[in-house]
Amino acid sequence: MELRCLFILFSLTAVYGFPNNNGLLMVMRDTASEGNRSYIMLVEDDTLTALQNTGEIAVDLVLTEYDSYKRGIGFDYHDRLIFWNDVQKHGVYKMSDDDHVTTVYGATSYNVDALDVDWVNKKIYWTDSSYNWIMVSDYNGMYTHPIIVNDIDWPRGIAVHPGQGYLYWCDLGDNPKIEMAKLNGEDRQIIVDEEHSGADVIHTPHGLAIDFQENKLYWTEGGLDKIMSVTIDLGSYVVTEEYSGQAFILPFSIAINQNNYFVGDHWEQKLYIFNRSDPNIIKGFTISKRRPLGMSYYSEWRQQFMDGECTDNNGGCDQLCVGDPSGHRCLCTHGSILSSDGKTCSPDSHFLPGHHLVYSTSDSICSLPVHYATLSDVIHAECFITGVTAKYMDYDYHNDMLYYFDNVSKHIQRLKLREGENPATIVSNVPNTRGIAVNWMEGTLYWINSQAIFVSSVTGDYVNPVITDNIDQPRGIVVHPEKKLLFWADSGSLPRIEKSSLTGRQRKAFITSDLVSPTTLTIDHSKDRLYWIDAGSSRLESIGLDGQSRSIVLSDLNIQTQLTGLAIFQDHLYWTHYTSQQLLMYDHFGENYVDVKSLNEPAISLMVYDKTKQRLSTDSDCHSQNGGCVELCIPTDDGAECLCSEIPGDPNCVSVIRCPMHILHGKMSLSCVNTPGNKCYVRCDNYFIPITAEPSLCQSDGEWNIDTDTLCKLDAAMDHFMLVADSQGLIYHVNTLSPSERHIPLPLSDINNPIAVDYDPVENKLYWTDYGLNTVNRANMDGTEREIIASMDIEGITGLALDVVNRKVYWTHVGTSRIEYSNLDGSEVQSVITTGLGQPVSIVVDTHGSHIYWSVTGTNAKIERSNLDGSGRGDLVTTDIVVPAGLALDMKENKLYWADIHLKKIETFNLASNDRHILVSSSIGLPFALGVSDQYIYWSDWTTLSVHRADKYTGLNIFEVGQIDFNRPNGICMFIAPPSTGSTTPPRDIRDITTTSPRDIPPPTAGYNEASSMPMIIGGAGAGIVLLIIVIIVVVAIRRRRRNTPPPLQHLNEPVYADIDDLGINPKGDPGLYLQPVQSEYLTMRGDTTSSPPPPYFNQSYDNNAYEKDTPTRQVHQNEYMDMKN
After folding, report:
1. Where does the record place the EGF-like domain (predicted)?
2. How confident is the model over 164-179, as pLDDT tens digits?
3. CA-to-CA distance for 255 and 259, rounded, in angstroms?
4. What burial letters (b/e) apply to 766-791, b meaning 16+ CB within 10 Å?
5. pLDDT beyond 90 at 726
6. Structure pTM?
7. Cβ neighbours of residue 384 under 8 Å, at least 6 residues apart?
8. How far is 492 from 858, CA to CA, in rounded Å?
C-alpha cells in the first residue's frame, strides 16, 4: 500500500468565480478564522492527475463567505449551476456562471446535511437531520415538497439516479441503513442494514456517490474504516467491500471519477485519493486549518445528457414535476393537493395541511408551520377557529378531527378540520377537566379530572370511568395506542407520573422520585420516549416508555409563570409560557435553543399536528366485530376487554376483563385463560425462576392474587458473586462459589460502554458509570427502577465507588479533573477534590478508616489518599508507577492493591507498615480492573479478554473464571454476604445507616466492626493518556482472537483449585470478608469494532453544532488519538 501524507498548501489561481474546467468540487470550513468562514473550491483534473510529493495543490476558489457553514454541494454541468446548503444561514443556494448567488430555499434547520441534483428533471434534493425529512425543490425554489418524513431518524448522505427515477440516502440513526425510493418518495425500501447485511458491512454510513455507468452506489464507513458499495440494478443489491484499512475518523463525503475515489475526512482535515483499480494505492493530504465537508466531481462524465419528461412543459404538472421509473410524476406544495388527473394542484381545504404547531388562546385556535423558526420570511399565526377557549386539545389525523375541552362551556367538543365545518359537542358538563387524549387507532377518547379518568367513544357514547381513586391534582394525560398504555401526571402531595393499561388496570407509579410539580406530558412516538416539564424544579425531562434511561433534557428553564403546553416534532421540542406570551423551540439534535417567538396572546395549550405520530394498525382485537363487545371495546396486550357505560345503555352489555398475560420478566403459560376465576402457571424469562410452584388466580378486579413484579426472580446467587462490566454494553453476574458456571447478563438495556460497577446490598441496587453516555446510573439488580443520578456535558466520567455507610456515591471525572460525590439518589452533589488532580481515574472508599483512595495517570502518575471530605490529602505511591488502572482495597488486611497496565503487574501496599510488594508480574497480559475476596485476587485482562484469579497472598494458581467470551471486560465488583445472615438475599440491616452532612462525614461509631457487617471495597477505573508504546501493545493485544489465546497459565509446583471451598478456610483465620467494587478502563486504543471503543480521555473541542449527535464517531474524534494509532 502506498500512502503519501502531505500538507496541502493552497495556491489560489482565482479569487472568486464559476469553475471553467473539470475537477473535484469541495466545500471546506475554515478552522482558523475568528468567524465562521467556508469555501467552495475546485481542484482541476490536470492538478489531480499530476499530484506528486510536492506538498502543494493549486485550487480555484469558487466562493468564500464569512458567517457561513456550507455542507452539501451539487451541480448541473449543462446549465452551469452550483448548488449548496448552509447550516448557519438556514438555506439552499445556487450560483450561476455569471457568479450570481441566489437563495433557493430559506428554511432549513441547523442540521441540514447532504444535497444532490437531478440534472435531467431540474430538481434539488437535500436531507435535514433536525426536521428528519428529505426535501425536493425546483431550481428556483418556487415549489418545495417534503417527500420523506416518516420513519427517518438521522438522514445524512443522499444520491439521485435520474436515469432510474430513484433516490438513495443513508440513515445514521439507531438502526444504520441505506434506503431507496422513487423520486416522489413512494415505494421505499431498505437495501443495506445491519440486520440483513451484517454489522461488518454498515455501521456509520456517511457520504454517498453513484457510478451511473456501473449502477453502483458507494459510501464511506467511519466506524469500520471501509469504502463500501452496493449494486443498484433494481432487484439486485450485492454489497462489496471496495477498500478496508484506512483509519477514518469522520469521512463526511465521497466523490468518484473514472479513476479515483475521493474521501474527505472532516475531523482529520484530510483528503484521501484512492486508485479505483487498486485502492491500496492511496494519496493522503492534510489540509491545513480547513475541514472538508461535501464534495462532488464536476464533469460531464458525471452528468451525461439525457432527455427528461419534466423539461417539456414541466411534464404538464401545475407545480413540481419529478422523475419516475415510468417517466415523471407531479407533486403539489404546501397548501395544495393533487387532483385526480395527477397533474393539477387545487387549494387544500384542510385547515392544517402538512405539519403544524397548533395552540389555543382565550378565544381562538391558531397554527404555525413546525419550521417557523428557520423560515426566511416573518410568519404570523393563522387562527382558524374563533369563539372557543380550548384549554386542552388532541386530534385524529386520519379522520381530520380536532378534539378540545372548552373551558367556558365545560364541554368536550370536536371539529372537522375542513372549511365550512362547525364544532359539535360530544360530552357535556365535564367541569374540572385537566386533560384529554385521543386513541386514534380505536376511536376512543380519554379525559381526566380531579376524581377520575374516563373513556368514551369519539362520538361521546358509552362513558365509562376506568380509574376512580387516588387522583389528587392531575395535570395532563397522554395515550400510546401502539403500546396500549395511558400516562398521566399528578402534582399533588405525592408528585408522580403514573401509567396503566387502556382499561385503567395494571396501574403503576411510573415515576415517583425527584419530582416536584410535573405539569404537562407528550410522547415521542418514533423513539418511544415520554417527555414532561416539572414546573417545580424548572426542568424538562424524558424517559423511555420501558422506564429506563431517564434524562434531563433542559434544566433551569426559568419558569416564572404557568407553563401551558409541550409538544414534539422530530428532533424539536416546543413549549409555551402563559404570562410571557412566548412560544419556545429547542433543537434536541443540536442541543441548542433555536427560537423564542412572542405571541400576540398567551397560549393556553399546545400540540403538533403531524401524521407521522399517528400510525394506523390492523392488528387489533377490537377491529373485527368490535371485539365481541356490545359497547366499548378496549384492546390490551392480553386480549380485548369489554366495558359498559356508566349510565345504563344496552341491557345486553356484559363487561369482560382480563388479567395480564405478560408480567415482569415472564408471562403466563400459553394455555392460560386469563379471565376471573381461572388459574395459570407462569413461564419466567431466561435467567429468571418463579418464586412459587403454585398457579396464580385471576381475580375479579383483573389482577392476579400475587405480586407479578416479584413472581419471577433472578436466578443468581446473591451471597457470593462478582459483577463484570463488558464494553459491549452488558453487565454480567458471576457466581464466585462456582466460577466455572455461566455468567448471567443482567436485564439492563441501552448501556453504551460501562466502565465502573458497584453494588449496594442495603437496597439491592447496582451502580455503574457509562463512558459512552457520560453518566452515573443505578438500577435494581433485576433491571427495574433504573435512574441516571449524574451526567455531564464534558466527557470523562469514569471511576465510581459507594460509601454504603454514609449513603454516598463518589465518582472521578478526567475531563474536568475532579472528584465528586452525592447522595445515592444523585442529590446534593459536592466536589471533593478539584485542584492538582491531573487525570483521576479509579477510586475506592474506606469507610472503616474514613478515607478515599484514587489513582492518577499521565506524566505524574501516582496513588493518593484523603479523608472522605477531601481534607488530609497526601501521596501514597509515586515511584515505579505508570498507568495504575484498577484499585482494590482489602480493609480486613489493611492493604491496597493496584494493577499497572503498562508495567503489566499487580502490586500491594500495606497501609499500616507502608510495605510494597509485587504480587503478580509474570505470565500476565494487560491487567485492567481488580477485585479481592477472602482468598483470591481477581482481575480483568485486555489481552485474553477474560477474568482471572490468583491466590491473593502468593499470586500463584492463576485461573480463568467462567467460560464467557467478553468483548472487553472492564470494571469488576465483588460481594460476599456476612455468614451470620444465613440468607441468599442481601441483608437490609447489616450496618447502622446514619445521615450526615456531606461536608462533615464522621468515621464509623465506636465498636463498629467493618469486617463482620459490610462489603470490602474494591474499586477501579481505567487509565488516561498513555505512552505511544503502551497503546501499540494494547491495540495488538485486543485484536488477538480468543481462540489464539493459550490456556490459562498454572504454576507447576502448585495445585489448581477449581473452587474457593477447595482451599479450606482463610489462612488468616477470618471467616468472611465483604467487598465493594472495582472499576476500570483507560487505554487509548481502538482495536475492536464490535463494541464501544475504550474512552480516549482527551479534552479537546470539536464541532458540536455539526456532530453532537454522532456518538459512535465522537468517541474517537481526537487528533492525539489518531497520531497514536497511525
Report:
1. 309-346, 621-654
2. 999 999 998 888 999 9
3. 11
4. bbbbbbbbbbbbbbbbbbeebbbbbe
5. yes
6. 0.69
7. 351, 352, 365, 366, 367, 417
8. 52
